[in-house]
Amino acid sequence: MKYQLQYKPYNENSILIQWPSLIDENILSDILNFNQILRDNLFKKILYINNAYNSLLIVYKECEFNFKEEIKSMESLYSSSLNLSNFQYKLWEIPVCYDVSFGVDLELLSREKQMSINDMVSKHTSSLYTVYFIGFLPGFMYLGGLNSDLYFPRKASPRQYIAKGSVAIGGMQTGVYPTSSPGGWNIIGNTPILFFDVTKDSPCFVSAGDKIKFVAIDHNEHELITKQIASGSYKIKNHLYNG
Amino acid sequence: MVKVLQSGLYSTIQDLGRFGFQHLGVPCSGVMDQHSARMANLLLANDANCAVLELTGNGPKLEFTSNTNIVITGANMLPMINDNSVLNDSVINIKGNDILSFGKRVYGLRSYIAVKGGFKTKAVLGSRSMYSKITKESTIKRGDYLPIADCDVLLEPNLAKLKVPNIDYESKVINVFKGPEFDLLNISTIKKLLEKEFKISNSSNRMAYSLNESIENSLNSILTSVVIPGTVQLTPSGQLIILMRDCQVTGGYPRVLQLSEESINKLSQRSAGNSIKFRLKAQ
Fold this sequence. Notes:
The complex is a heterodimer. By secondary structure, chain A is of the alpha+beta class. Chain A folds into two domains: 6-80, Gyrase A, domain 2, CATH 3.30.1360.40; 89-241, Cyclophilin, CATH 2.40.100. Helices cover 26% and strands 30% of the residues of chain A. Chain A contains five helices and 14 strands. In chain A, a hairpin with a 3-residue loop joins β3 (46-51) and β4 (55-60). Chain B is mainly β. Chain B is 10% helix and 30% strand. Chain B has three helices and 20 strands. In chain B, β16 and β17 (240-243) form a beta hairpin. The longest helix of chain B is centred in the N-terminal third of the chain and has 10 residues, at 34-43. At the A-B interface, β1, β2, β3 and β4 of A face β15 of B.
């Protein structure tokens, strides 16, 4: 399916392309498809490309270019583009300990929602989440697919410190804090998995388009996996996912 | 090597930025005032991307352990070598054991120290720019030894002088383009945005400058989208936030204006309490 795209110069050396303002998996696939086509065709000129829910930003190395011509050639690339079939999305299994010692807001959510902690955990672990993009912090995934029973507003005043690996719910979204940070989301658990590691060539193992499944683990397993990660012997469970 | 005797208020190693990891949430970082940093490297015949030391507000005290050439550009903080005044924007000959220190800041906010061949601190993800979640250190500290390139052949001092126009350190005018959500603003908000003078607030840093005066805001938040340095966001309370080099790669506030590259450089030299005025330019 083709969308009506809007092309806008953003600054002297970048162009913003916008899709309809929706969180939608079909839009995501179209963005990632066009992203790859632009990378293949413009790689010599591009400094970086970045996407969000309904947008794609193309930043050029040089400021000296003609916006109109550039946009025209992008439009023709888009209209003649095919769906690339060589995408290899992965499904990652992320172990999470939903113990109240980590999930410091679990009891609050349970009270407010009149839902047992077990029910909340089972709803959080039964969804398959889609990674739309990574932003806010290095390695912070914007995930779609939270069960609407778990929607819960962000805190009115954010906490100054949220521990690395905290799994949280903010409004209609869920996510993992990849590093310690201030933040306003409600903490429901913790994962020992590192979502951002500068010592790796590819510092974040997740890509936009991948799927995430949270798997409940207990305190002992959390400790064990933490040790295995430190020693380099832990491998995150994953397999190819093609819809 | 350069030994840090005093760190100064906020001194960081920066190059032109860390690119290609934005899709993983990594900020661009890099020197705030690219114009001044590029000039410093140019005068030393360095590559434009050579890492420099960015000073904010006041200067450090540094001891050089070997001979080299340096250039200081940007804000004037009355630099001295062994207590003798030296000039900004000119090549300075340094001998082993020389001590570089600074006096009171005369104009501007950020100075740049370039050394021949550049600072050689550890590059992370393709850049030496310091950023707390990426590099081990987020500023230089007293007692640090900063590696620099070996430099055998010294340039004659003062042979090279800066002939290009410097930044206008007094002008309030900040050139902007329409931001992606500009056209959603109503006429009276646009009028205020482009006619009012705004004061830079105290909570302004490498990540963002915020402005004291707020304006009415009838726009809702947007679906989280991409942002870049120089993006001016309008928050629900009507406050304006200008994103700078260390900004996040995505944001959910309407993007009403976009600073030109030259204006980001210029704003980087303005401090809390200074006034600015936006001037809209056609793209």
